[in-house]
Amino acid sequence: MSRVPSLLLPAFVLTLACSPAEHEHRGPEFQFGAAPANPAAVQTIKLAPPHDAAEPGVRDDGSIVSAVDWFDGNLERALAKAEAEHKLVFVDVGAYWCPPCHELDEQVFTKPAVGDWLRERTIALHIDAEKGEGPEIVDRHRVQAYPTILVLEPSGVEKGRIVDFVPAEALIEQLEAIARGTNVLAELEAAVAASPTDLAALYRLAHAYTLAAMRDEADAAIMAVIVGDPTNEAGYASKVLYDRMQFFTLKLDNDPEAAILEFEALQKKFPDSKEATKAYRMIGRAHCKLGRPDQAVRALEAMVASDPNDVALKASFGWFAFRQNCRPDAGLAAVLAGIEQDPQSAELRYLEAELRRLLEQPEAGLAAIQKASELEPESAYYKRQIRRFEALVSG
Questions:
Q1: All domains of the chain, ordered by start, with CATH?
Q2: What is the model's pTM?
C-alpha cells in the first residue's frame, strides 16, 4: 500500500464530525448542502484581538473572544506569509451550522495555550466551507467532514489533518505530532499488515482512505472488509459500503441516480444494519439533487416510520430539510412530532426555529430559539442565534 502525507484522524467514525454530505441529530453525521438561505444573517464569531485586549473566552451574551490570531487574508497570502516566517499554515475548515465547529470556537480556540502554540508555529486561517474560496479549498483538499483542520507546508502540500472536535490539550499533542512528521495513515497500514484479518483495523484503514479520497486504496481495503465480514455479522461490511456510496458515488462521482440504486441495494442486503436506516437520508439527498423533493420526503418519511418511537430520526429529518432546504414544511412536521415526544430537546427547538425561518415565520422562529436557549442556557451558540432571529423579526 502506498504512503502519503500524514493524515491524522482522531475518530474514525463518520457520525462524529459534520459531514459535508449530511447532518443527523447531534451525535451526528452532518450533510453537504446548499449555502445558508440567508448568509447575511449568519454572524461571524472568529475574533483575533491584540494580545492586550479582553481575556479570551465566551461572554455572557454568547460572543466569543478568540485566543487565536486568525490571519486576515486568503490562503495564498497565508502561504506566502508562512514561507517568509518559516511556519506552517493551520487551516480550520468549518461551517456555521456545524456543532463540533462551535465547540472548537468556544472550548478550544479560546484557550491561551492553543493561541500561543498556533502563533509561534503557524499562520492560522479560518475557512468557511460554503463561502468565498471555501468550496474550492474543500474540493482541492478533498475535505469530507467538518471541522477539518489542515496543516500545510508553505508550498501548499498537506502535512497532516485532524477531523472532528478534539479538546485543547489533545489538539496541541496532535499538532506537534504532525509537525514532527508522524504519519498516522502509515501506522494504520502497518497495523493491517501485522494483522490482516483484524476487521476493526481494516475498517479504520478503509475509512481513513475514504476520507482522504484515496480511491484505489480505499476500494482494496473495502473489499478486504467485505471478504472478512460477508454477512455483516461484525457490522463492518455495511459500514464500508455506506462510506463508499456516500463519499465516492454520491459526492465525488456526483451520480445521484447510481447512489439511489446502491443505497437501496444496501438496505436489501443488510436490512437490520444501522446503515440501512441511515441510507434513507442519502436516498433523500440524491432525490433532492435530482430536483425531486417529494420523493426525497418519502424517503425521509420511510426512515421515521422504521422506528416511530425514535425521536432522533425526526431530528434527522429536520436537519435534512433545513440543510437541503428541501420541503421545510415536511421537516417541520417531523420536528414538531419529535417535540411532542421530547419537549426538553433544545436541538429540536433549534431545528424548529431554522425551519420556520425558511417558511418565513420569523416570530415563531424567534420563540423556538428562545426556548432552545432556555433549555440549554450554557450554549453560547443559542445565545448568538437569539440575536440573529431578533434581527430577522425587526427586519
A1: 14-182 (3.40.30.10), 291-395 (1.25.40.10)
A2: 0.76
